[in-house]
């Protein structure tokens, strides 16, 4: 339609600090650093806001560094992923020193407008081999209280742990006016509705759209609680996923080649990035039976209301 506004996207879960975006895979350099290209491709696709995930102390520092370099486009989360919570006890100087350093990092980055959320924090009962339950529970609680102190909205991870997760967050909700986002959601309809009732938004990416069961849940996510993400370099929509049936008339994305054949300007096969976020919105629109414009407008409003992303104040 003439005069139609271009679609705009906020990728609220993107791991731009991962070495693959510098051309390094499993410790080996496969091609040149192309982070700037990845960000530019996202911008070209209408993805003008990217929230870079901090998953431990070093990755949170990386996320902040990227947000400084790409000010106004990239913003950071600061926190320790449940699978990395043993970092607290293994830190030089101990867990109290780790907590102090994490707090100071978040405080400084929030004051500078770089950190807009506390996370990625939460619980993951699917990967207890990385961090045992008691460690995850202890440091999820510690980090929830730190988020309250900092008054940052939450960026949350929840896998197969609904009851314990809810038991920890429910008593703290009134102290977190912005609540937060449960990202990369793959749970049941009942779990989704419970989270929405608690005031959380639901983050949808390719991993949220794998199966017919996933699609049935996503169809029920209220538009006013929906946010979208890629979770790149992971969570791409694959041909084997139930969601791929909805991509027949999807917008074109840049060509991808194997990393060994990399050329500047091309995506890398198996390395998801912000330029693919239109596919997530497209699938959501088809599943919900609404327009892509409605999906994009709702997700943009929800993300900028919760996290600011340079578009509005997040302080209460």
From TrEMBL:
InterPro entries: Metal_Hydrolase (IPR032466), TatD-like (IPR001130), TatD-type_Hydrolase (IPR050891). Gene3D superfamilies: Metal-dependent hydrolases. Coiled coil: none annotated. Keywords: Hydrolase, Metal-binding, Nuclease. SUPFAM superfamilies: Metallo-dependent hydrolases. Pfam families: TatD_DNase. Belongs to the metallo-dependent hydrolases superfamily. TatD-type hydrolase family. This is Uncharacterized protein. It comes from Lithohypha guttulata. The lineage of its organism: Eukaryota, Fungi, Dikarya, Ascomycota, Pezizomycotina.
């Amino acid at each position: 339609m003439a005069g139609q506004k271009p679609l705009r996207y906020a990728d609220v879960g993107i791991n731009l600090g991962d070495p693959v975006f510098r051309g390094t895979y499993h410790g080996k350099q496969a091609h040149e650093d192309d982070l700037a290209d990845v960000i530019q491709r996202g911008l070209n696709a209408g993805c003008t806001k990217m929230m870079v995930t901090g998953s431990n102390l070093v990755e949170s520092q990386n996320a902040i560094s990227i947000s400084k370099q790409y000010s106004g486009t990239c913003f950071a989360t600061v926190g320790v992923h449940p699978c990395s919570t043993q970092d607290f006890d293994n830190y030089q100087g101990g867990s109290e020193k780790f907590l102090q350093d994490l707090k100071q990092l978040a405080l400084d980055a929030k004051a500078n407008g770089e950190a807009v959320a506390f996370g990625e924090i939460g619980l993951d009962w699917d990967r207890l081999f990385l961090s045992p339950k008691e460690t995850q529970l202890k440091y999820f609680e510690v980090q929830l209280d730190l988020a309250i102190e900092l008054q940052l909205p939450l960026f949350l991870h929840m896998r197969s742990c609904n009851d314990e997760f809810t038991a920890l967050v429910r008593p703290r909700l009134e102290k977190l006016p912005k609540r937060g986002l449960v990202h990369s959601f793959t749970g049941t309809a009942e779990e989704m509705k419970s989270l929405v009732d608690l005031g959380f938004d639901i983050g949808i990416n390719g991993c949220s759209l794998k199966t017919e069961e996933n699609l049935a849940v996503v169809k029920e996510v209220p538009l006013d609680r929906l946010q979208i993400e890629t979770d790149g370099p992971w969570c791409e929509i694959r041909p084997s996923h139930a969601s791929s049936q909805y991509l027949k008339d999807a917008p074109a994305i840049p060509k991808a080649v194997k990393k060994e054949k990399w050329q500047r300007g091309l995506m890398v096969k198996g390395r998801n990035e912000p330029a693919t976020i239109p596919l997530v919105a497209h699938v959501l629109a088809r599943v919900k039976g609404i327009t892509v414009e409605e999906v994009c407008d709702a997700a943009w409003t929800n993300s900028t209301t919760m996290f600011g992303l340079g578009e509005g104040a997040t302080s209460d």
